[in-house]
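Inverse folding, one chain.
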């Protein structure tokens, strides 16, 4: 089973990656920019595997660029307390 198949596993996966980046000294702006790039990739190149991903994709697709940055920043906040080590 892929981490994309289950939204809770996806959040844990993202949380783990976020914590790794923070532990390596990556600043918040770089993290938010990477989250934006991941969101863009997922919305345009990856089929949604669950209802939550479909909603995020649909929101991304109707959002302006500024709103997309807001969505990606909110996803970072959503997973900041997630992960297998938290």
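Residues assigned per position:
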């Amino acid at each position: 089973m892929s981490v994309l198949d289950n939204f809770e596993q996806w959040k844990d996966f993202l949380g783990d990656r976020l914590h790794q980046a923070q532990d390596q000294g990556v600043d918040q702006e770089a993290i938010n920019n990477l989250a934006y790039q991941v969101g863009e990739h997922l919305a345009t190149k990856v089929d949604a595997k669950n209802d939550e991903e479909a909603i995020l994709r649909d929101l991304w697709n109707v959002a302006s660029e500024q709103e997309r940055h807001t969505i990606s920043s909110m996803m970072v906040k959503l997973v900041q307390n997630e992960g297998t080590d938290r």
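The chain has a mean pLDDT of 88. The chain has four helices and no strands.
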